[in-house]
Amino acid sequence: FSPGRGNALQAVVASVFGLDLQDVPNFITMEGGYENAIRTFCLEKGDIDCKKMAVNGDLSEYDGKLCILRGTSPRGDFGHVVVARRKGDQFEMVHDPHPDETFLTGDEFGWCMFFT
Predict the structure, then answer these.
(1) Would you call 105 exposed, middle or buried from its count of C-beta atoms within 10 A (0-12, 13-18, 19+)?
(2) Around Cβ 113, how many Cβ atoms within 10 Å?
(3) Three-class secondary structure of residue 17 per DSSP
(4) d(CA 107, CA 116)
(5) What's the rounded mean pLDDT across residues 27-41?
(6) Are residues 55 and 112 in contact, defined by beta-carbon separation less than 8 angstroms?
């Protein structure tokens, strides 16, 4: 394992969609970037839209919804993603694909992605 080469993004997308890990590509390794790869995957799964956005905007329409949340890994100075639920103006941590289940450090997050 090396930062930016793991499969946390693959695992959280599988979790959000209720799929087995082997049924979801490792988006980080795909040409064209992970965001385009996720969009293509969502369209193939049934015309699902994914919206990646800053966490400090108005997210009220997503209250109670699951998302992918990107922040800093507690295992080093690099990014990590988890499944979270938007609750009011906060994120509730739901699932960390890493075996130690320590989620993210602090409360400064880079972005979130919702599926509609």
Answers:
(1) middle
(2) 19
(3) helix
(4) 25
(5) 95
(6) yes
One-letter identity of residue 43: L
Q: Where are the beta strands (DSSP E) in 49-89?
A: 50-53, 66-72, 79-87
* Ramachandran region, residue 75 (left: φ > 0; alpha: ψ -120 to 50; beta: rest): alpha
pTM across the whole model: 0.93
Given this model, what pLDDT does residue 70 score? 97
- Given a contact cutoff of 8 angstroms between Cβ atoms, the answer to whether 38 and 51 are in contact is no
Sheet holding 66-72, edge to edge: 50-53, 111-115, 66-72, 79-87, 90-95
By the 8 A CB rule, do 89 and 22 touch? no
Q: What is the mean pLDDT of the segment spanning 101-114?
A: 93
pLDDT of residue 20: 96
Strands 50-53 and 66-72: what pairing?
unpaired
